[in-house]
Amino acid sequence: MTYESPAVLDAGPSDGVDPDEFVRAAMRWHFDPATGSRYWLDRAERLAFDPRRDVKGVADLSLLPDLTDELRHVPVADLIPRGYGSDARLINVFDSGGTTGAPKRVVQLDDWMRHSTEQVDRRLREHGLPLGAQWLTVAPTGPHLVGDVLQRAAASLGGPGLSIDMDPRWVKKLVAAGRSDEVESYTDHLVEQCRRILLTQEVGVLAATTPLLERFAREDDLLERINGSVRAILWGGTHMDPDTRHLLATEVFPDVPLIGMYGNTMMLTALLERPGLDASQPCIFDPVSPYVFLSVVDPATGERVEVGERGQVIVSHVSKSMLIPNNAERDTAVRVRPAGDHAGDAVADVAPVATVKGETVIEGVY
Amino acid sequence: MTVVKADGPVYLDALGPNGPYRTRVPSSVTDVSGTEVARLSLVPPVYVDRALAVLRKAEAVPTAGMDTLLEAAAEEFATGTIGGLGVREYEHLVSRTSGSPLTVVRTATRDTARFVSLARASADRGRPRGAARDSGDPALGSGHAVWARRGEVFAVNASGNHPGVHRLWLEALTLGYRVAVRPSRREPFTPHRLVGALHRAGVREDQLVLLPTDRQAAGALIRGADRAVVYGGDDLVARYAHDARVLPQGPGRTKILVTADTEWREYLDTIVDSVADEGGTACVNATAVLVEGDPAPLAEAVADRLSRLPGLPPQDTRAVLPVCPLDRARALDSYLQKVAAGTRAWLGGDGIVDDLGDGSAVLRPAVHQVDHAGAPQLRAELPFPCVWIAPWNRSDGIAPLRETLVLSFLSRDHALLDTLLAEPTIANVYAGDRPTHWMAPGVPHDSYLSDFLMRSKAVVGFE
């Protein structure tokens, strides 16, 4: 059977619901034995507080622990809230990239897919993306969320989506093994596939990862073609430092708007760069109330840093279908006040956490 | 002398094909005590790729007038104000960041200027007798060869152990290569000054660039060039061993061999200088001394001399020993004690760290005696005066002398000299009273660089 959920929990991104009210409803849903998932109900028994009573709004999400490591082995069926009953429409199981070990898994149900598509669609329209234009997306597909988000974005703007798949895990393995020549060959292979599409098809929107865009900068024929016909470039999947962003925007693709996308598997969607900023200003990503809340904290103390300061990014995803609170990302960013009535922080200049590798002190003379 | 820039921090911009380029958040360059002394712009890979593309399209520095140009650049380097830094300020910063004694840096300034002014002639010394410089040579008509480049763009992934590292790539520029230099992040001042001096003297910005980067973008630089030289340890040498486009410059493992027919006491100055001059940080400083007979007296004499060297901050004009951050000094010390286990310590056995109290420390010399010529310690090269003294017997053969950048040969045994000259893994042999760190324009350091950059191309029919 299916349980009735409070109307607020079915709200779309345009419905303007109160984020605190939404969070309270989500707590009641995920922690009610009748409606919560097996995973969360089991886990709740070991919490030192009652989420239904103690989480009164967005700010109290910080009470919940970061349990994302457990998503490496939880059976995905255990993640689906019981309240959906036999009506649960599981569309995808997505994996994280597995940079820090075994991949973490999340489920995407039909209702969340609609909300996510709608919010991405709205943001892209705010950026003035052309409707009905053909897309080329070069991104990880398969178990990876980003390719799916881009394909749905293309479809929602009425554009046919051509795509090239990439396997980020294989590339990371090659990099870790120091096989840089093979990384190069694989990248050449991707560029070659893109070339076939770019030179024979009319591409209006190009969506690609940062390394691919950097790689395009070495191909004069592709640059001419992209600057001549592409009307927007979406970048995402990895970070882009401010200098690279500025160079790409002003020198490599001077005639095409460059729009950043920040998302990951645990967020279960993507955030689009705040419109209206040029390449010399920081690239800001706003959260999406009432589903995705960000906070920027001091990694040592867990305390929120001041606005304008850099810290570690903490992401909470709250929806009817999934609850992934307080995921400590491997990103740092500058804390910014969010636009509009979004709750929590916005983030600027997202960058990877500086990896503290035990650098070998002894390197001989050099 | 204290150098304080009143007008804010020193900025070391990238010197790209379209002029200086400053990144949004330049990274800090700190001195040996950890104090920020400059800000260095590390360019991203996309900048490297685009700069290399411009270099590839640019023409070579014309041969005509090259010597005049180089002389002007040498003069600028030695005396000019470049990037806002006079030569004294420059030398102070190099000394404070690399930890090299100021006198070593000052000598390096003069020597580098001399190498710069003679770079064309120096490179030409490496030209094979059968190869003409260009197609205008009348000898070509009878069937001959022309000396030709193997590529267009040369990249240098430099080290920061000694300012002299930057003398080598000048030759590539004179051979018509366009050159991209990636400075060491520890000591970027010398290449910044040298590239600036050459630009002022007339080398165009699309012929020579300075591209400071992080390690990841360094990969883009090496990959994007036709030929590259990289400096580093054994791991780096192994990584590039099979890449014909890359010339790795690894540890020197410079050695001295004293045979029984030679009284070493007459050469003690040369031996000690070989170990400790230049602060003992160069690949041409002696790492090992092999002695036919009892090595103990020599070890004792060397230790005695080295023990008298004063421990001073690098910018002190009396300083002769290298300085580095205190935590690195301690790490080097514990590494040394581990490596030296089982040897007889004549100097440095109770530690080599001389804490200067400001976050930095002098690295004091170390002298250890090992009990046979095959001891693994002879391969341990450390960035301060640190020498391993070993007995050597005729029965050891030349195996212990292999893999050596400079071998100083204190002996009258000509047959042995010939054997050493024939040994492929010994790069240079200096016979007689000549310290291992001796260098001169036109004399190869590790073969002529042109062996790697040029080829002889048969040309017939040019009348």
| Number of beta-strand segments of chain A | 13
Q: How many whole angstroms does the radius of gyration of chain A measure? A: 21 Å
- How many helices of chain B? The count is 14
Give me the number of helical elements of chain A.
Answer: 10
What does this structure look like?
Chain B: It comes from Streptomyces umbrinus. The complex is a heterodimer of chains A (366) and B (463). The radius of gyration of chain A is 21 Å and the shape is globular. Chain A has helices at residues 19-30, 38-44, 51-54, 110-126, 145-156, 168-176, 180-200, 210-216, 220-229, 242-252, and strands at 90-95, 105-109, 135-139, 161-165, 205-209, 232-236, 258-264, 269-272, 284-285, 292-297, 310-318, 323-336, 346-352. In chain A, α4 (110-126) crosses α5 (145-156). Chain A is of the alpha/beta class and 366 residues long. Chain A has a 6-stranded mixed β-sheet with strand order 4-3-5-6-7-8, with helices on both faces. Mean pLDDT of chain A is 92; it is low at 356-366. In chain A, 30% of the residues lie in helices and 22% in strands. By secondary structure, chain B is of the alpha/beta class. Chain B folds into 2 domains: 3-124 and 148-250, Aldehyde Dehydrogenase, Chain A, domain 1; 254-431, Aldehyde Dehydrogenase, Chain A, domain 2 (3-Layer(aba) Sandwich), CATH 3.40.309.10. Chain B has 14 helices and 23 strands. In chain B, the strands form 6 sheets. A 7-stranded mixed β-sheet of chain B has the order 16-19-20-14-13-21-22, sandwiched between helices. A 5-stranded parallel β-sheet of chain B has the order 10-9-8-11-12, sandwiched between helices. In chain B, α2 (66-79) packs antiparallel against α4 (102-117) and α10 packs across α11 (296-307). The mean pLDDT of chain B is 94. Classes of the chains: A alpha/beta (366), B alpha/beta (463). The A-B interface holds A 178, 180, 184, 214, 217-218, 241-244, 246-248, 251-252, 361-366 and B 23-25, 43-47, 49-50, 53, 159-161, 219, 223, 231-234, 239, 250-252, 281-283, 328, 331-332, 335, 381-383.
